[in-house]
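Structure in, sequence out. Go:
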């Protein structure tokens, strides 16, 4: 849950830690964690918990913000890179204990052109989440 602190001595609660904001269907949400990658459907997607922010006020209910789950779908380029990197890893593993066929070697040579997806900065269109659902 997002950390809220009473910094004014009154009833106003302020967010003391956030990880950015995202707008979805005209409503702003404040992320309370960095997005993380997880299995989704037949691939992967990125997820993060968030709270709704309307008129610059966090949606509070009994001093706890309602929790929302933000989902971003990965781009086709990210998915292709991930697929080819995994294929290269598999074929290198196979090559460690048997000779690859000519076709397998050709596939390995092609797949090795794709680096590991270490930087997820281009994994998604971060400004346009695929969905936001209340938890």
């Amino acid at each position: 849950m997002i950390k809220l602190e009473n910094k004014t001595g009154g009833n106003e609660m302020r967010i003391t830690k956030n990880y950015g904001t995202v707008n979805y269907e005209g409503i702003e949400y404040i992320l309370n964690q960095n997005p993380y990658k997880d299995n989704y459907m037949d691939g992967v997607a990125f997820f993060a918990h968030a709270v709704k922010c309307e008129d610059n006020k966090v949606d509070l209910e009994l001093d706890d913000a309602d929790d929302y789950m933000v989902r971003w779908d990965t781009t086709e380029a990210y998915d292709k890179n991930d697929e080819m990197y995994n294929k290269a890893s598999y074929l290198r593993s196979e090559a460690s204990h048997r000779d690859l066929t000519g076709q397998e070697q050709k596939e390995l040579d092609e797949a090795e052109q794709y680096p590991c997806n270490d930087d997820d900065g281009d994994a998604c269109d971060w400004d346009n989440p695929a969905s936001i659902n209340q938890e």
